[in-house]
Amino acid sequence: MKVTVLILTKDNEELITNCLNSVKDWAKEIVIVDSGSQDKTLKICQAFDCTIHEVGWRGFSGQRNMAARKTSGEWLLYLDPDERVTKKLRDEIALLPEENGVSAYAVNRENIILGKFLIKGGWYPDEQVRLVRRKELLGWEGVLHEYPKVRRGIGKLTGAIVHLTHRGINWSLEKTIGYTDQEAALYFKAGHGSVRWWHLFLAPIKEFWWRGLAKLGLFEGTEGVITVLYQAFDAFLVKAKIWELQKGKSWKQVYEEVDERLRREGKY
């Protein structure tokens, strides 16, 4: 099977080279959909003779749909710059027939977190539908955890993509701000019930129990413990931000009202 690789980029100069190295001698074509890189990302991609399209950001699903429209390739493999295709997966895909009765394939993803491949804690096999037949693709959907809708069935491959994620505590914190904003907004828009004080305890406790104990994440060494606690913190943040949205006032407005009340009370 001949494959076109599609990669979404923006300021990924530290990661893109080895992503491209993992597919350069195997892919029929490499298509880059870039949303405004200011670093050396595009220069690196040009050196690999990639087809480059610069488009405005329209969300992960929108970018993936745009990428599919930028190629005539029959089979599309979607990658992120922090991912690498293993030799086992490349060989497995190469042996697949062009006509095989399915619209897409799911692959395993090996998550390297804080430098360690985590298996426990719900991190593996982390199946992702990434190999898609273009004419069978109805479109990618979802804001945070996007997925492709296809016409027919989805097969399963045994090979894996390596995912170099959670690259340090500060990196994770920076990503968490944006992701929890989006997740909270989605729940709020869907009419999430009122967040009470006990929800702020229950959400992280539930996440800690599931990842740390049910999925044995606490038995993955220091990296596993940090990750379990961090995911519990993430669950707390989502609930807190939903509560924040449910207040219906900006913090600027809240503090203006507090300031005015204290002034009227003669506090200052």
Write the layout of secondary structure elements.
Layout: E1 3-9, H1 16-21, E2 29-34, H2 41-47, E3 51-54, H3 59-69, E4 75-79, E5 83-85, H4 87-94, E6 104-113, E7 116-117, E8 128-133, E9 137-141, E10 147-150, E11 154-165, H5 169-189, H6 199-214, H7 221-246, H8 251-264
Parallel strand pairs: 1-2, 1-4, 2-3, 6-11
Antiparallel strand pairs: 4-8, 5-11, 6-7, 6-8, 9-10
Please sum up the structure shown.
With 268 residues, this protein is of the alpha/beta class.
Looking at this protein, list some descriptive labels.
268 residues; alpha/beta; Spore Coat Polysaccharide Biosynthesis Protein SpsA, Chain A; 2 domains; 9-stranded mixed sheet; two-stranded antiparallel sheet; 8 helices; globular
Give an overview of the whole structure.
It is a single chain. By secondary structure, the chain is an alpha/beta fold. The protein has two domains: 3-165, Spore Coat Polysaccharide Biosynthesis Protein SpsA, Chain A; 169-254, no CATH class. It has eight helices and eleven strands. The protein has helices at 16-21, 41-47, 59-69, 87-94, 169-189, 199-214, 221-246, 251-264; strands spanning 3-9, 29-34, 51-54, 75-79, 83-85, 104-113, 116-117, 128-133, 137-141, 147-150, 154-165. Strands 1, 2, 3, 4, 5, 6, 7, 8 and 11 form a nine-stranded mixed β-sheet that branches. A two-stranded antiparallel sheet has the order 9-10. Strand 9 (137-141) and strand 10 (147-150) form a beta hairpin. Helix 5 runs parallel beside helix 7. The longest helix has 26 residues, at 221-246.
